Amino acid sequence: MSDGSDDMSRFTHFRYGQEPQPAEPVPDTLAIPHPGPLSPRGMLISCAQCQATRDWLLIQVRPNRSPTDPNLVFVRCRCAHEWREPDLEAHHVTEARDDGFEEREWDSFEEMYRGLGFDGLFRGMYFA
Fold first, then answer.
1. pLDDT tens-place string over residues 68-120
2. β-pairing, 82-84 with 28-37?
3. SS3 letters for 82-122?
């Protein structure tokens, strides 16, 4: 096991004769818990795995960090099922953000899901 002190720990896997490529940049992401139901076009959104109809995590992603690129909106359920919701747009996420929302940076998506309770541990529970 390496504790990062040896010289080999700084290398990544690549083929001989190829230069290692820098890691892909992490896209701008905003995640907002939304306790209520979602019905952006008059149809109630429900989870395909557990049939939940409320208590979501709305995830807005701007893949290329460019203001002209479209934002993608994903919905994540407490059961950890996540999907891109084409009926939701960036303004839906902005509207769900209340004034008391405390912004926080997470080290990883997994840590964020666990910290906000959307990692599957609270499957079948509603908190709102």
1. 667 889 999 999 999 999 999 888 888 888 756 677 888 888 898 999 889 88
2. unpaired
3. EEECCCCCHHHHHHHCCCCCCCCCCCCHHHHHHHHCCCCCC
CA-based nearest residue to 57, from 88, 26, 23: 88
Q: Is 59 helix (H, G, I), strand (E, B) or coil?
A: strand
Closest CA to 35 of 91, 97, 111: 97
Q: What does the radius of gyration of the chain's CA atoms come to, in whole angstroms? A: 18
**pTM of the prediction?**
0.71
Locate 3 and state its tokens: 């504790």
Q: Which residues contact 78 (CB under 8 A, 6 or more apart)?
A: 50, 52, 55, 117, 118, 120, 122, 123, 124, 125, 126
Burial 3-23 (b: 16+ CB within 10 A, else e): eeeeeeeeeeeeeeeeeeeee
